[in-house]
Amino acid sequence: MDANKLFEQFLGSGRQNPQQGMTEQNNAFNSSPLGGMMGGGFGKGAALGGVLGLLIGSKKMRKMAGGVIGYGGAAAAGALAYKAYQNWQQGKQVQTAPIATVNDIANVDPRFLAPPANTASGQNFSLTLVTAMIYAAKADGHIDNKEQTVIFEQVEKLSLDAESKAFVFDALRKPVDVDALVSSVQGIEQASEVYLVSRLAIDIDHPAERAYIEVLAHRLNLPAELTAHLDHQIVDA
């Protein structure tokens, strides 16, 4: 299994042309029962989507498609985390701190990117990021057995290898285990990105999701100001 590729496909592969049509993932979702329940229109006109889109629905994905994540996929997640970290280190005010742009994607500190796929650390961290997004998407309990079945069916149609699909299915089935997730994170840089990708799948207006993300930040030992900067990158990007 190429864990880095799985992470990339989880977020969507990014896009070179903002006007390109819907991707395979978007089409699969829109034609599914779950897509119908959510009104369709999933990420129309954008190449963002991926497996995450199947988990969190169309409204939030459309917003993300218009931002940095829509242009850079997995690399953009690293850029957002790195920008938040820089702003925190420089003591900037959260409300006025700069947001990562498309240009920042090419200048990300390697510590905020998954290590090479041919290394054990690269494989492990990419899988940690994928697991973090799945756990966050499940935090409010909205993925019931019926929706989980639909998601399984749609993931089967995507261009993932058998091992990657099995990993996603297993993570969806098993209970959320924050202890296991946090135990695989090394350093404040990785913690920042795990928190950030989790926030991508969270709507903190929902009490259960807010509680989950607060527990995750605490368990990751992230300073409150850094957490605020990471939130700022997601909410205002």
Walkthrough of the structure:
- The protein has 237 residues and is an all-alpha fold.
- The protein is 62% helix and 0% strand.
- The protein has one domain.
- The chain has helices at residues 3-11, 24-30, 33-37, 50-56, 58-65, 68-89, 120-138, 145-157, 162-173, 178-183, 187-200, 207-219, 224-236.
- Helix 6 (68-89) crosses helix 11 (187-200), helix 7 (120-138) packs parallel to helix 11 (187-200) and helix 11 (187-200) runs parallel beside helix 13 (224-236).
- It is globular and about 45 Å long.
- 48% of the residues are buried.
Condensed summary:
This protein is mostly helical and 237 residues long. It is 62% helix and 0% strand. It contains 13 helices and no strands.
